[in-house]
Amino acid sequence: xxxxxxxxxxxxxxxxxxxxxxxxxxxxxxxxxxxxxxxxxxxxxxxxxxxxxxxxxxxxxxxxxxxxxxxxxxxxxxxxxxxxxxxxxxxxxxxxxxxxxxxxxxxxxxxxxxxxxxxx
Length: 120
Prior knowledge:
Number of domains: 2
Distance between the termini: 55 Å
Strand content: 5-15%
């Protein structure tokens, strides 16, 4: 069963949506539907993460508080890289580059990664 919803867009968001539609050749409905799916997935993930975090802390896994990273989105992305046993974390984010010395894996900017790959 299909259903429809109606939303109001402020002028800036409407212009942005129109521009992205033109650039990608996708319809407004497709873009909004995909954005809603992503947002709902993020909300479900965050809810699950909040429930699982106490168990991860109890087992000694890296948690958000392990490094002084200000942006909460950066924290979980970095923690995922550590849990996935990444060898290098490539970013242009100054906050993450600033904590590189205390991190359990190498954090480099794109130029640093390029130099690493050239030396390998």
